[in-house]
C-alpha cells in the first residue's frame, strides 16, 4: 500500500500591478487626508490614484482600514529612514535627524490625530507600528546620549511633541504654503538638542508615559 504524498499547495502572491495599485491608493489617500481630512470621499481618492472604486474596496473594505494602513505605512517609512541612516555610518544623531525630517515629509503630525475615538486605536497593526516607532526613537536617543551627541535632559516625549508641533498644523488646515518653513524650523530644534546644552530646561524630561497620561 502506497502512502499518498502530501499535496503541494501553491502560494498565491499578489501580482506586481496589484501591489502598485495598492501603493498608489495609499499615497493618494495620504495626500488627500492631509489636504481635506479623513472624511474625504473614497471615490475622490480612487480618482487621484488612477484606479476604479472597486480596486479601492478590494484592498480596503472600509474607511477605517484605509486610514489605518496610511498611518502604519508612514510610521514604517519613517522608522526605515532612521534605520538606514544608522546602517550607513552608525551616527545616532544623524539617524535622529533623518527620523524627524522624514516624519515631516510623511505628514505624520497631520495623519496620526486621525486615529481618534472613531477608529480602533488598539488595533494590532497600529499598536505594532507605534511600538516599532517608539522603540526605535528610544534606542537612537539613548545611543546619541551615550556618544555625547544629545543633551541628557530630554526624553522621547519631548522629541515627539516638538516634532508634531513644528512639522505642520492639523489635517484639513489651509497651511500648505507654510511647508517651505518646516525643515528650517525642525533643524533649529534639532540643533538645540545637541550636547553640550547651552541652557537648563525647566521641568523634567517628557516620557512616552507622560504623553499617554496627558
Explain what this protein looks like in three dimensions:
Residues 19-78 form the HTH tetR-type domain. This is Helix-turn-helix domain-containing protein. InterPro entries: Homeodomain-like_sf, HTH-type_TetR-like_transc_reg, HTH_TetR, Tet_transcr_reg_TetR-rel_C_sf, TetR_SbtR-like_C. Residues 41-60 bind DNA. This protein has 214 residues and is mostly helical. The chain folds into 2 domains: 16-61, Arc Repressor Mutant, subunit A, CATH 1.10.10.60; 68-213, Tetracycline Repressor, domain 2 (Orthogonal Bundle), CATH 1.10.357. 64% of the residues lie in helices and 0% in strands. It contains 10 helices and no strands. The longest helix has 27 residues, at 63-89. The radius of gyration is 21 Å and the shape is elongated. The mean pLDDT is 86.
Let me know the CATH homologous superfamily of the largest domain.
Tetracycline Repressor, domain 2
Shape: elongated
Beta-strand residue fraction: under 5%
Provide the succession of SSEs: HHHHHHHHHH
CATH architecture of the largest domain: Orthogonal Bundle
Q: How many independent structural domains?
A: 2
* Helical fraction: 55-70%
End-to-end separation: 70 Å
Let me know the number of strands: 0
| Low-pLDDT runs | none
- Using only C-alpha atoms, the radius of gyration works out to 21 Å
Mean pLDDT across all amino acids: 86
Largest sheet report: none
| CATH fold label of the largest domain | Tetracycline Repressor, domain 2
* SS class: mainly alpha
Identify the CATH class of the largest domain.
Mainly Alpha
* Total helical elements: 10
Domain HTH tetR-type: 19-78
Protein name: Helix-turn-helix domain-containing protein
InterPro entries: Homeodomain-like_sf, HTH-type_TetR-like_transc_reg, HTH_TetR, Tet_transcr_reg_TetR-rel_C_sf, TetR_SbtR-like_C
Keywords: DNA-binding, Transcription, Transcription regulation
Amino acid at each position: 500500500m502506497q502512502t499518498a504524498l502530501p499535496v503541494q499547495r501553491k502560494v498565491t502572491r499578489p501580482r506586481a500591478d496589484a501591489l502598485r495599485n495598492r501603493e498608489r491608493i495609499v499615497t493618494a489617500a495620504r495626500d488627500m487626508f492631509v489636504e481635506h481630512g479623513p472624511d474625504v470621499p473614497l471615490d475622490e481618492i480612487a480618482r487621484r490614484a488612477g484606479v476604479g472604486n472597486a480596486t479601492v474596496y478590494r484592498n480596503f473594505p472600509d474607511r477605517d482600514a484605509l486610514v489605518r494602513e496610511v498611518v502604519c505605512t508612514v510610521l514604517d517609512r519613517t522608522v526605515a529612514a532612521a534605520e538606514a541612516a544608522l546602517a550607513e555610518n552608525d551616527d545616532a544623531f544623524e539617524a535622529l535627524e533623518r527620523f524627524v525630517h522624514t516624519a515631516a515629509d510623511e505628514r505624520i503630525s497631520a495623519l496620526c490625530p486621525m486615529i481618534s475615538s472613531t477608529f480602533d486605536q488598539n488595533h494590532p497593526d497600529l499598536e505594532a507600528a507605534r511600538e516599532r516607532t517608539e522603540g526605535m526613537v528610544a534606542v537612537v536617543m539613548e545611543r546619541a546620549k551615550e556618544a555625547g551627541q544629545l543633551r541628557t535632559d530630554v526624553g522621547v516625549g519631548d522629541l515627539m511633541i516638538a516634532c508634531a508641533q513644528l512639522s505642520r498644523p492639523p489635517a484639513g488646515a489651509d497651511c500648505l504654503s507654510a511647508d517651505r518653513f518646516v525643515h528650517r524650523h525642525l533643524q533649529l530644534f534639532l540643533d538645540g538638542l545637541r550636547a553640550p546644552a547651552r541652557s537648563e530646561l525647566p521641568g523634567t524630561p517628557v516620557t512616552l508615559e507622560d504623553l499617554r497620561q496627558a
